[in-house]
Amino acid sequence: MNTKKFLVLYAVIITAVLGLVVLRSSTSSNGSAPTAAKVKPDDRNLPQIVKGVALEKNYSFAGERLPITKNFDVRERLDRELMVNSYWHSSTSLNIKMAYRIFPIIEPILEEYNIPQDFKYLAVAESNLRNATSPAGAKGIWQFMPASAKHYDLEINREVDERYHLEKLTHVACKYLLHLKDRFGNWTLAAAAYNMGETRMARELKNQRTDNYFDMNLNEETSRYVFRIVAIKEILSDPSRFGFYLDKSDGYHPLTDYRVVTVEQTIPNLGDFATEHGTTYRMLKVYNPWLISHRLTVSAGNSYDIKIPQI
Fold first, then answer.
1. Residue 33 per-residue DSSP state
2. By the 8 A CB rule, do 189 and 213 touch?
3. For residue 142, what is the DSSP state?
4. Which of 60, 81, 58, 80 minimizes the C-alpha distance to 69?
5. Ramachandran region, residue 140 (left: φ > 0; alpha: ψ -120 to 50; beta: rest)
6. What residue ranges in the chain does DSSP mark as E strands?
């Protein structure tokens, strides 16, 4: 065999060996092809069904109808919020759970002030029914700024922040909403003004020559705000229609198992106070989130009602 034929034969053998090595490395231990090679395009689809929300009914906020049949822009804005909140699974599920705890406290106070029950969903939009703090410094379930809270005589200092006192803050929110309704003439504008501020709302109404929220061109947050409240109302009023199957037993129970102790003297350490009353520091703060320090100073002639959980 001459040298040229030998080199050709050698190349053929090397190529065959390398081919076998590649083929062997591309199979699994049992000789089958790798999983990725067997996957069909349809098998990689996410295991969920996402449908559009059928806007088949008349939608309203606080008894005021949304003009979705007359205005495509209004219809699309509502559709957006229904889609966002329907498929924001964890947040919406937790809101449903928290509603069992918070709504029983909010509802009778709204009724006391003759404010439509739809405004409880405004609280959901504001804070997800939690004692949140906004980047701007608004706090509590109704998200009040310090100046507004103090205007309505809520106490705020290093030891106490009554924006975290749900009952007191709900009374204040009701008073403010009644003021906004009186100033702007309807509940929809009152809700929008709650979000953006009454001074800015008054200026925009004047500049845009309108008295209708749905005809206004506002900042992104306020433009979506009322629609978001309506979407939250629809979902929380009938969760299963939107695919949320949570039983009442899944909800967070109201914090009603407590007794009240009226305190008229300074408490140097709330941990000691909790122990003396048969509870823990953590549970004391859960039931009284307005206590924001480890101590409570009580000035002469003043007093505080503190909830003592029965655990």
1. P
2. yes
3. T
4. 58
5. left
6. 60-61, 64-65, 258-263, 304-309
Q: Token digits for 188?
A: 């929809």
**Single pTM value for the model:** 0.83
* CA distance linking residue 287 with residue 257, whole number of Å: 10
The whole-angstrom separation of Cα 241 and Cα 234 is 9
The residue written with tokens 């509940």 in the block is 187
Cα–Cα nearest to 74, from 221, 206, 216: 216
Read off the pLDDT of residues 7-28 as tens digits, 9 standing for 90 and up: 444 454 445 444 444 344 444 4
Contact between 289 and 127 (Cβ < 8 Å): no
Question: With 0-12 CB in 10 A as exposed, 13-18 as middle and 19+ as buried, what is 231?
Answer: buried
pLDDT tens digit sequence for 107-150? 999 999 999 999 999 999 999 999 999 999 999 999 999 999 99
- For residue 55, what are the contacts with CB-CB under 8 A and spacing of at least 6? 68, 75, 78, 79, 82
Give the count of alpha carbons within 13 A of 1, CB side only.
8
CA separation for the pair 104, 252 (Å, rounded): 12
Q: What is the dihedral of CA 170, 232, 85, 251, to 10 degrees?
A: 70
Per-residue buried b or exposed e for 126-135, using 16+ beta carbons within 10 Å of the residue's own CB: bbebebeeee
- List the end-to-end C-alpha distance of the chain, in Å, as a whole number: 97
Residues paired with residue 213 on neighbouring β-strands, in sequence order: none
Q: Distance between CA atoms of 100 and 223, rounded to whole angstroms? A: 29
**What is the distance, to the nearest Å, from the Cα of residue 177 to the centroid of all Cα atoms in its chain?**
21
Tell which residue, 53, 111, 48, 103, has the closest CA to residue 231.
53
